[in-house]
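User:
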Amino acid sequence: MARKQQSPRQRKAHCGQKRAQRFFGRTRIWTWETDREIGSDAQNAVAVTRTIKGWEPLEPKVANAVTRHRNSWIVCVRALCWDGAGTEWVEEEVRIMENQRLSEFNDLYHDLRARVLQAQRYDQVVDVGWIAGTWLKDPKDEELTLVDLGASSKARQLLWRQVDEDYQEERRRALAAA
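Assistant: Predicted structure:
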């Protein structure tokens, strides 16, 4: 008796987007406004991913790829505050973005930054920055507020005030041109 010949197995088409989402499923990227390249306006961003060894840094090329792919992000704009007497705290605004590119975050950053600064006295702000983390199932499982705050100092506060003046001037020009 002859066996019935089976047709070859059909495989699902490869989906690069889904693969990237799984690969970047536990990634964090952050920067502070005072953390800039000397002689330019480019901010230094730090990117890490969760592996079996813990949080490991990502190469800049890979970090840029994370920002270009659509992922689910929890975004936190935060202000490091200091009263000058040793008490530190973080003022924050958090938003959840699903299936978006982090590179499309710019407009949201301006809004969240303004809200954070409205909730805080200007003379107590040491620095402002953002941190974003990808998530797969539950966006509330990321505790991003206290990651890599750095040290509060008068020098950092003065540098941030200079950066903030430049930022405000840049925003005025952008809004006037629009």
